[in-house]
Amino acid sequence: xxxxxxxxxxxxxESAYSEPLMVTGAVGDDDMTPIxxxxxxxGVDLGVAGSLIQARERVRDQRxxxxxxxxxxxxxxxxALMLLACAVVLGLFVGGLRVPxxxxxxxxxxxxLLAGILGAGWVLAVRxxxxxxxxxxSATIAAEQxxxxxxxxxxxxxxxxxxxxxxxPGSEHRVPFIAVGPAGVALIAIVPAGPYLILAPSGVKxxxxxxxFGWLPARVWEARYLMRQLYNIGSGNWRFTGPVIPxxxxxxxxxxxxxxxxxxxxxxxxxQYQIRRPTILxxxxxxxxxxxxxAHVELLxxxxxxxxxxxxxxxxxxxx
Length: 320
Hints:
This protein has 320 residues and is α/β, with parallel strands linked by helices. It folds into 2 domains: 3-45 and 145-307, no CATH class; 68-129. It has 8 helices and 10 strands. The protein has a 7-stranded mixed β-sheet.
């Protein structure tokens, strides 16, 4: 690259921390993606990310059923006995017990006992600790709860109502947040963890296919689907004609180390899709032009609340 190219590239990287950053990405234009209608069911409000908490509990229950009773799991029994024996003997050492022979031998035996405790503990942790699926769900739950706290605080006192953990009308498709206010309806997703923007001399683009060609089109589809459903549900003098705004909030902690040439600093945009920090996102919504009068906002909020029921399944229900 020439000196001019170097200067442009440096300016491009610095622009990653400005607002907003335009990013080239693929946004699906197919708004007619078919979806199988789901039978209506009542939902229950279990709080922010309640359906994910339910899913984590199901994963744990399945894990317990696979392992069976603890006393029948040979590996668990062996590790537990080894942990107990090593802990007892090491406790005796700490209490003053000495092994006949050189002092170095006592140190070696003590080290071996400690290693046995750590090894047995590791086996039990792997055997009965959280699985990869549980850890992923826990991280997502924490991200949504963190974003919910910030969004709720920032929208407090405004005309916007925030709904959490909802299903799109007539489906089992879950969305983390729906905000209803004077500017319309906002579908708020949580941007996945990790840096997804690649900065290059040729421009700025979304990195990783999972974001640009999977996650992003799904968010756009959600907005178009909800727009059609709300329009069809309305009747008489009240028929919602939009807008439904797809937008994402930053919920996961930012990566402490960002690879060279990458950026994970919202706010930025992928085409017209906004990605912002929760507090800034809430402020952004309140700054949008007011389309609906307060009375119409109440009607719209009631419509969305009724037709986008809570996602969690009532306890005891076999519906998934």
